[in-house]
Amino acid sequence: MMASHIVKPDTRNCKRPRELEPQMPESPQLSSLGKSESSFLESSGLFYKDESLDKDLNDMSKEINLMLSTYAKILSTMESTHQKKATFGKREKLPCIAPLLTTVEETPQMVSAQVRGHFPKWLSGYLLRIGPGKFEFGKDKYNHWFDGMALLHQFRMEKGTVTYRSKFLQSDTYKANSVHDRIVVSEFGTLALPDPCKNVFERFMSKFELPAMTDNTNVNYVRYKGDYYVSSEINFMNKVDIEALEKTEKVDWSKFIAVNGATAHPHYDPDGTAYNMGNSFGPRGSCYNIIRVPPEKVDPGETIHRAQVICSIASAERMKPSYYHSFGMTRNYIIFIEQPLKMNLWKIVTSRIRGKAFSSGISWEPQYNTRFHVVDKHTGQLLPGIYYSKPFVTFHQINAFEDQGCVVIDLCCQDDGRSLEVYQLQNLRKSGEGLDQVYNSAGRSFPRRFVLPLHVSLNDPEGENLSPLSYSSASAVKQADGKIWCSYENLHPEDLEEEGGVEFPQINYGQFSGKKYRFFYGCGFRHLVGDSLIKVDVVNKTLTIWREDGFYPSEPVFVPEPGASEEDGGVILSAVITPDQNENNFLLVLDAKNFEELGRAEVPVQMPYGIHGTFVTI
Ligand SMILES: [Fe+2]
């Protein structure tokens, strides 16, 4: 098998691409920008003007909060998409990847890996990864990839050697399902069915019981006050002893602050202060809340004590807040993107009665534009600027920074927000033409830059680009109503379309988060799961690619070499898996500069396709 190392220059005309021109109101969604804020809201929700319903909502808000927590598990990745003309993929004869999306056994005892090539001696630590690893209990089967029980993976590197082990997270959900040998707690795409031992009346009435809340936190490792937790987007997180790979404590966000949960992608200041975002629901409707968690413990037993909500942003539609998976942060600002991927709260809270899974309450509504909100993270003040762009969906921001009075934010973007359905397990496990059809119906994800001028005044001219940044073709045009219409710059060469776009973006976070930067790393998606590793130079717009046919690499994690001063001075780690039973899975280490393989550590253990991870120095 050959790995390819390709540097692909940007072959496009360097002039501003056509889609970067200001998008003046010409479509129904754009014309709504000219309306007053109230008419905009009124036209968008059934419940906005109903006073009696408002009163009912007040009374129900507590209940709704509780139920939202249960269901607030939303996707997580969704990586795939598209953009431009090539919105969807066009591939055929895709190999079946079903073995990567089936239940595996845990490997609790450390297994020594066989190292080929070498792992740098300075590389000493854990690559911790997490993702779904068990997809049925008894005769009950989960429907969606996100539903699977969390499996914790640990690759331990020290003095050139590598060991591996994995354990299922001993969440209350996992334990309850195991005891009953059936699915007793609903997940994102799976509604737990009533106990078959109950009689018909009891089973009917059980639809009206408050469902147990899942604590199957299977998306990412996050860090608060030096401790590691596994998180999804629900109200619960599970604190983990990363050495023993064991859960030590279950933590509930709603016990500390008024939120229903928080994302699995917090940001960190250099001093360890963590920022995150979570939703709440009250008498005035849905709010998006910015959370700050201090870096240090006052008491050794603390978890997220003294967390604060520093800003609440009202949802454009009170009963249909947008789904978001991450957000941006510069040195001084938080950037929140309110996108037209909506959560219908009524559908969600009534899903059990309707016999539907939580996922049935999420809808892509491209009749609305995407809006950017900018918040001063020191004061909690929401800036007055109103920034819009045409509808898109983003799951992962790449980086953001400030320059010449602007916020620059780079995102992996999809123009079609319906990719959640694609990740039903029955889709992922298809083969032949059926699999090709699924892939070709999924949007792809491409990196884009938006520029948001921070100081817009009444005197600024209408219809002109307010961005002063000569190095970016992204534009920000003030409209007659004072709002700023933002058009993006592509951060990649056209060649990226052949690679199926890019997702799971990672940077040299320690040194370049919130700062002007040049490189990010991600997975290419010529399949429904990542099938290559890509280094993107966002300045020169070139790609460097690692690929090995039949193997599927995980999110690339950058680890800086101690003392290195260059942005890409370090290595890339990725867990590479294959559905071929005759081949071993392995941990790959690449030189981050040129993407040449330094070594691989082969492990004769079956591993499912995972979601996110992190590196922790020993
Ligand atoms: Fe994610």
UniProtKB/TrEMBL annotation:
EC supergroup of this enzyme: oxidoreductase
Compartments, record wording: Mitochondrion
GO molecular function: beta,beta-carotene-9',10'-cleaving oxygenase activity; beta-carotene 15,15'-dioxygenase activity; carotenoid dioxygenase activity; metal ion binding
Cofactor: Fe(2+)
Main location group: mitochondrion
Positions of the UniProt region annotated as Disordered: 1-37
Superkingdom: Eukaryota
EC number: 1.13.11.71
This protein's UniProt keywords: Dioxygenase, Iron, Lipid metabolism, Metal-binding, Mitochondrion, Oxidoreductase
Basic and acidic residues bias spans: 7-21
A Gene Ontology biological process term: carotene catabolic process
Family per record: Belongs to the carotenoid oxygenase family.
Function: Broad specificity mitochondrial dioxygenase that mediates the asymmetric oxidative cleavage of carotenoids. Cleaves carotenes (pure hydrocarbon carotenoids) such as all-trans-beta-carotene and lycopene as well as xanthophylls (oxygenated carotenoids) such as zeaxanthin, lutein and beta-cryptoxanthin at both the 9,10 and the 9',10' carbon-carbon double bond. Through its function in carotenoids metabolism regulates oxidative stress and the production of important signaling molecules.
The protein's name: Carotenoid-cleaving dioxygenase, mitochondrial
Lineage: Eukaryota, Metazoa, Chordata, Craniata, Vertebrata
The gene coding this protein: LOC102744306
